[in-house]
Design brief:
The complex is a heterodimer of chains A (113) and B (112). Helix content of chain A is 0%, strand content 55%. Chain A has 113 residues and is mostly beta strands. Chain B starts with a strand and ends with a strand. The chains are: A mainly beta (113), B mainly beta (112). Chains A and B meet through strand 5, strand 6 and strand 11 of A and strand 5, strand 9 and strand 10 of B.
């Protein structure tokens, strides 16, 4: 089975500052990794995914994440946030031979002017 | 593409009533997932279908919950009888033989 731990439940940040959201996973098999964003009263939207290849993955809205197999981590970063980045962010993992996604508990990012 | 379409967006029902949630996946997507989101338990996978066949229903809470996918363009999640603890946002998602779902906007269910 797979599990995901998002190390921060709330991250307040000022506009134009950088942000990092931490995600660790555990699995006995090889995995694929994802970050999703959820804006208030909406569904989840895929930000980026790591399936294979380069460990640095670039996604939408200026976000990027780095897969670190030795540390079993997949941290999400953005060098300069906007007010519109205020949302909840979910890290997720699936076994590479299955489509079943397991989600972390989420990190709420609040961007202040 | 209209995306994954869920209906209704909001449902308020009385305890004991039957509730049916509906989902239309993206055309051409062959896998469909039902998730439930609550503050206490986060996002939980209830069931998923591949080519209209249920593959894993281990997340379905109990016999009061059932899901069907009669064809590639429609799925339902039914709760009978409903209880207040079923109150949650229910999401449907679909994908086409790949990794990374497209989610619907969800159905917010309130059981009073």
């Amino acid at each position: 089975a797979q599990s995901v731990t998002q190390l921060d439940s709330q991250v307040p940040v000022f506009e134009e500052a950088p942000v990092e959201l931490r995600c660790n996973y555990s699995s006995s098999v090889s995995v694929y990794l994802f970050w999703y964003v959820q804006y208030p009263n909406q569904g989840l939207q895929l930000l980026l995914k790591y399936l294979s290849g380069s460990t640095l993955v670039k996604g939408i809205n200026g976000f990027e994440a780095e897969f670190n197999k030795s540390q079993t981590s997949f941290h999400l970063r953005k060098p300069s946030v906007h007010i519109s980045d205020t949302a909840e962010y979910f890290c997720a993992v699936s076994p590479s031979n299955d489509y079943k996604l397991s989600f972390g508990a989420g990190t709420t990012v609040t961007v202040r002017a | 593409d209209a995306g994954v379409i869920q209906s209704p967006r909001h449902e308020v029902t009385e305890m004991g009533q039957e509730v049916t949630l509906r989902c239309k996946p993206i055309s051409g997507h062959n896998s469909l997932f039902w998730y439930r989101q609550t503050m206490m338990r986060g996002l939980e996978l209830l069931i998923y279908f591949n080519n209209n066949v249920p593959i894993d229903d281990s997340g379905m809470p109990e016999d009061r919950f059932s899901a069907k996918m009669p064809n590639a363009s429609f799925s339902t999640l039914k709760i009978q009888p409903s209880e207040p603890r079923d109150s949650a946002v229910y999401f449907c998602a679909s994908t086409r033989g790949g990794h990374g779902y497209t989610f619907g906007s969800g159905t917010r269910l309130t059981v009073v």
